[in-house]
Amino acid sequence: MHSNQRVIQQQDIITVFDVGTIPVVAVEFFALFSRLEFALLASGYAGGEVGDNAWVAWDSFGRDIHSSFFPDMRGDNSVAVLFEEPARKLIKTESGGCEFTNSPVPTDAVELLLQVRRIRNNLFHGSKVNFVERDGLLVRAAVKVLRRLLEALDKEEKTWKVRSAWAYAQIGSQ
Questions:
Q1: What angle do the packed helices 24-42 and 109-125 form, to 10 degrees?
Q2: What is the per-residue burial (b if ≥16 Cβ within 10 Å, else e) of 42-78?
Q3: pLDDT means per 10 residues in the chain (174 residues)?
Q4: What is the pTM of this model?
């Protein structure tokens, strides 16, 4: 690698200098997730007090998603891992370390979106390299959920503003 080369893409992985290899699906997931969070904030799904940091009101959004979304996802074999072996939650232990604990199976859209957020947190705060098979299954399932969520936005009047904000989001502007 030349000293001025920092990113190389080969098939379904990206190699980043001083980081390692990252599956393209992880990059796709981060891009979809971050743009959705922007769209949610821009369309009024913002929590927090005036003058304080804003955060995404995921539960409120989850309750507003069209009623067909969760049953469609529940019946989709490509996301079965989220219902059979949900993403595990990283918790702090008494010794000051961290360990993963099992998560409950999602029973509605709010809990399914919690799974997607947990996958994002585990990936973002964990290792982006040396994906094991389960990591890939979880990230691909989360991508599928996000893409189907985008389709569901048009089915419910309450979420039309999210679709509009998604369409007009200016990526990279602050």
A1: 130
A2: bbebeeeeeeeeeebbbeebbebbbeebbeebbeeee
A3: 51 76 86 94 93 94 97 96 94 91 96 96 72 87 96 94 82 51
A4: 0.85
Q: How far is CA 97 from its chain centroid?
A: 25
